């Protein structure tokens, strides 16, 4: 069963400028920095005081661009297989993300909405 919404990812042109705005003006904190698995470009995961998380991915875009929704699950492989049965297409199958200490997969539905499913290890910096 798909769990709670975990985060929303946005593509941004200037990662440092967005981080400065979100931490300075909106009071968010940086939980983790890293690089995107495919592009190798910088990413950052930020959170607010209530636990809402926003993943910023540096990209060649003119304005912030929606990239994906991420939901927590208990079993990445089982939920990934169910999403495929429900008509989703694979972007990246189940795999580990060392930086976030998690297992994840990325799919898209028929309208091209990208959905990441993720299960964190108890000591993940993203929790």
Q: What brief labels describe this structure?
A:
single chain; 127 residues; alpha+beta; 2,3-Dihydroxybiphenyl 1,2-Dioxygenase, domain 1; 8-stranded mixed sheet
Q: CATH homologous superfamily - what is it?
A: 2,3-Dihydroxybiphenyl 1,2-Dioxygenase, domain 1
Question: What's the count of strands?
Answer: 8
Radius of gyration: 14 Å
Summarize model confidence as the mean pLDDT.
95
SS class: alpha+beta
Tally the structural domains.
1
Major sheet description: 8 strands, mixed
Strand content: over 45%
Q: Could you name the ranges where pLDDT drops below 50 across 5 or more consecutive residues? A: none
Number of helices: 2
Order of strands, main sheet, comes to: 2-3-4-1-5-8-7-6
Helix content range: 10-25%
What is the oligomer described by this structure?
Answer: single chain
What report would you give on this structure?
By secondary structure, the protein is α+β, with helices and mostly antiparallel strands. It has a single domain, classed as Roll (2,3-Dihydroxybiphenyl 1,2-Dioxygenase, domain 1), CATH 3.10.180.10. It contains two helices and eight strands; from the N terminus they run βαββββαβββ. It has an eight-stranded mixed β-sheet with strand order 2-3-4-1-5-8-7-6, covered by helices on one side. The mean pLDDT is 95.
């Amino acid at each position: 069963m798909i769990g709670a919404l975990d985060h929303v990812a946005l593509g941004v042109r200037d990662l440092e400028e967005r981080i400065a705005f979100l931490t300075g003006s909106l009071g968010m904190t940086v939980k983790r920095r890293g690089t995107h698995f495919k592009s190798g470009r910088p990413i950052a995961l930020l959170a607010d005081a209530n636990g809402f998380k926003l993943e910023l991915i540096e990209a060649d875009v003119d304005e912030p661009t929606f990239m994906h929704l991420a939901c927590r699950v208990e079993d990445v492989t089982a939920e990934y297989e169910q999403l495929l049965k429900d008509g989703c297409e694979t972007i990246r199958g189940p795999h580990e993300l060392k930086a976030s200490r998690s297992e994840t997969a990325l799919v898209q539905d028929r309208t091209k909405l990208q959905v990441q499913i993720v299960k964190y290890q108890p000591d993940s910096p993203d929790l």
